[in-house]
Amino acid sequence: MAASAEIGSILAGTIPSGGDHAGLAFSRHVSRAVAVSRGWSRSSLSFLGGMVVRSERAVEKSEGTAVSASVNGPASVLGEQKTSNMGVFTNSRRKTKIVCTIGPSTSSREMIWKLAQKGMNVARLNMSHGDHKSHQKTIDLVREYNAQSEDNVIAIMLDTKGPEVRSGDVPQPILLVEGQEFNFTIKRGVSTENTVSVNYDGFINDVDVGDIILVDGGMMTLSVKEKTVDVVKCKVIDGGELKSRRHLNVRGKSATLPSITEKDWEDIKFGVDNKIDFYALSFVKDAKVVCELKDYLKSCNADIHVIVKIESADSIPNLESILSASDGAMVARGDLGAELPIEEVPLLQEEIIRRCRSMQKPVIVATNMLESMINHPTPTRAEVSDIAIAVREGTDAVMLSGETAHGKYPIKAVTVMHTVALKTESSQLTSISHPSLATEVLVSHGEEFFQSHMSAMFALHAAIMSNTLGTSIIVFTRTGSMAILLSHYRPSSTIFAFTNDKRIKQRLALYHGVLPIYMKFSDDAEETFSRATSRLLNQGFLKNEEFVTLVQSGTHTIWREESTHHIQLRKV
């Protein structure tokens, strides 16, 4: 059995002065040694447009010892590199994706179209509000938009309500004053000046004397002073207006409710019937509930990915197993900051992003990103910085909740998020971070390594080549796996992911830097590549004579032989 691969990497050197390439130089050494299980790499030198290029063919042999590789530091591109005489061009498309919650402010056809045009990549259905009829309307409108749009696609995410503990209905807001005594009762329908009901019978058992109860994530706080069989007696610490059905948290604790309620199962079935793209599963405490949902989806033959919402105190000790069982994560900072000390939230956000990236899973940063824009046309400077920090930390997506669901300025909110993310991305130095893969390359041996990590190795080198030359990446994928791997290494240019599966096209809309495009594949690789580049030229994504990095690798082959992987530098 033989496996071969071609990798091009720029050797240290300077383009000769004069001619078409005058002044174009690469001063950094970015050649790569490639380790292939049970084989040695053969390399040769060639010239491409005045540049010295190493073409490496890695051949797997039936016998021999594994060779470890030393990988030079991360490749970086000096200077702007927007255009050059060679035709190298780095486009300025935003790579961090935007999730928009659809609600009364944005549920019309006109508003969904405007959100999509301004930057929405994923439409979120919040099952805590609305009914199946209203959410069905949103799904139908998004599908209509996708059917009409060739160069853009919107994925659909259903966010379960989860086991929320809420206060009962009140005929009018109750004013809570600091130092006042106020009670919560598990008796239904109670609403007086000093007592209101809660929707959860286990509330009495979940709280203890001395606990801090937060209303609406901390807008009001109360201290538990005493409890009886059916009443929790509190003292108001921070007052405010208590309205109907307010969310209640106990700091440092999670409610002993099942993560998936009966209502959630009804909503999940609604999602299966409508073939949505993602579930955002609320209040996940352990991996067991994720496996339970995945088993159900498997029994329904439903290809829907599960994004876990990290928002409860109980989820943090089980974070590793929860993320491993899931298809991605959402940092739901509202409830997370209510159940845990708020100063821990930024650290947890960074940690969750880091872990998801190391597992090659998408991550979304959510809650309060542009909260002030619910009522105001411009954001606070702190909110702008919040978006920029999430982008720099490497999140796949940032999310708008009330800002687009019921806010006064939903289009302006999306525009602000788009411009801040784009500006932040443009200011970041180009680099490829791959400590986990580098370690695996050095210590792994045998067939298992070759099988499981070959695609990841090629994605890494394709990203390095793209960054070094400033080229966009083109990949053809049936499952989306190679596009996801490429996204994981965060190349500075766009990943044009062509797929012949519309479900995969929609799913890839969530991943950082990926622009998914639906196109039928023919049996002729060159003919398909020609149609793809013509389409990108016609839509203005590429320029004539521009170079692109073409990747033919991944778990499933399309045109290449099973044992062969390619990375090519091609001129359009």
TrEMBL record:
Q: Which UniProt keywords apply?
A: ATP-binding, Glycolysis, Kinase, Magnesium, Metal-binding, Nucleotide-binding, Pyruvate, Transferase
Q: Which reaction does it catalyse?
A: pyruvate + ATP = phosphoenolpyruvate + ADP + H(+)
Q: Which residue intervals define the domain Pyruvate kinase barrel in the entry?
A: 94-414
For the Pyruvate kinase C-terminal domain, which residue ranges apply? 465-552
The cofactor required is: K(+); Mg(2+)
Q: Which residues form the signal peptide?
A: none
Q: Name one GO cellular component term.
A: chloroplast stroma
The Enzyme Commission number assigned here is 2.7.1.40
Protein origin, superkingdom: Eukaryota
Q: Which InterPro entries match?
A: Pyr_Knase (IPR001697), Pyrv/PenolPyrv_kinase-like_dom (IPR015813), Pyrv_kinase-like_dom_sf (IPR040442), Pyrv_Knase-like_insert_dom_sf (IPR011037), Pyrv_Knase_AS (IPR018209), Pyrv_Knase_brl (IPR015793), Pyrv_Knase_C (IPR015795), Pyrv_Knase_C_sf (IPR036918)
Biological pathway: Carbohydrate degradation; glycolysis; pyruvate from D-glyceraldehyde 3-phosphate: step 5/5
Q: Which GO terms describe its molecular function?
A: ATP binding; kinase activity; magnesium ion binding; potassium ion binding; pyruvate kinase activity
Tell me the Pfam families matching this sequence: PK, PK_C
- Tagged with keyword Metal-binding: yes
The UniProt similarity line reads:
Belongs to the pyruvate kinase family.
Q: What is this protein called?
A: Pyruvate kinase
Lineage at the top is: Eukaryota, Viridiplantae, Streptophyta, Embryophyta, Tracheophyta
